[in-house]
Amino acid sequence: xxxxxxxxxxxxxxxxxxxxxxxxxxxxxxxxxxxxxxxxxxxxxxxxxxxxxxxxxxxxxxxxxxxxxxxxxxxxxxxxxxxxxxxxxxxxxxxxxxxxxxxxxxxxxxxxxxxxxxxxxxxxxxxxxxxxxxxxxxxxxxxxxxxxxxxxxxxxxxxxxxxxxxxxxxxxxxxxxxxxxxxxxxxxxxxxxxxxxxxxxxxxxxxxxxxxxxxxxxxxxxxxxxxxxxxxxxxxxxxxxxxxxxxxxxxxxxxxxxxxxxxxxxxxxxxxxxxxxxxxxxxxxxxxxxxxxxxxxxxxxxxxxxxxxxxxxxxxxxxxxxxxxxxxxxxxxxxxxxxxxxxxxxxxxxxxxxxxxxxxxxxxxxxxxxxxxxxxxxxxxxxxxxxxxxxxxxxxxxxxxx
Length: 402
What we know:
This protein is mostly helical. It has one domain (8-197, 214-398): Growth Hormone, Chain: A (Up-down Bundle), CATH 1.20.1250.20. The chain contains 17 helices and no strands. The longest helix has 30 residues, at 226-255. It is globular and about 60 Å long. The two termini are 40 Å apart.
């Protein structure tokens, strides 16, 4: 293994592209399928939104288990089998004929995404970095942000080939991309003569002799830590709002008279603009107190929601993208960086797995609640205003973390 270029950066790059494809095909891309599926089957917004909640199980019921498996067996195997399962789920989804089959396909996608989503990729990157963990996580998670570039392509594929053919294409692409990149992953630097951040060790260190640097707190002690539960509650609210937006952005824009093509560009712009926050706030969190940086990100999200209520005025669309997207992207990076800083890396997979499990509660509530509000009131504005206020309250809570 080359001593000139730290291999950890190759892992960051591989995780970047894994996040890019999974984010585009599974996470952000669903909003493009929303209206075509509704037109074909006549299902309500609430029924279709519930599928997004099932997809979020990779951050919920599966996340603590995935975190344990990542710590126990390493990330490479999980990423390999996860990408295989996601590809199969996307192809199965293309054959949907009933609501039960629709939900079943999303359960398979959620199960697979648990193996190749942020719990696993964050765990392996946190194993390889300590001093530069904010920058490394920022670059890695920027791949999910860059996946917004796939949205206009997905919208075009649906318009030309139909939503079923598009799902088959995405499933095959998942297999090709994910399987190849999984072989780049290595679990810990000590096994190859390195320490985190590229510091060299004289020889490979047996796994049972690997020693961590800095604070190390196990899951049991973390569960008795008040600050840990503050972080978990913050994640519940943050994911409730974020999943609602990325699921409903195109239906919302369509409901206020904005074209499907423009809606696809806005939906793609959300993750792309989030790269500013993912990388910028990740770097800033390595320089100053991460709590203050995260509070800044929530402030941007809150004001971004206010702009989202009035995007009929075109310039407010750009205000929304420039506020909400960097804010939510930065908060995503800082979540992992704060956990790594406060609790170490030995149990990082388990710790972030439980956090992601808590966040999935919000991920289940958010899109379903937004769909119900629209079905009931015929408008999304009330729910966006409520979310703006809730995000503002998180600023007070994050500053209470010790």
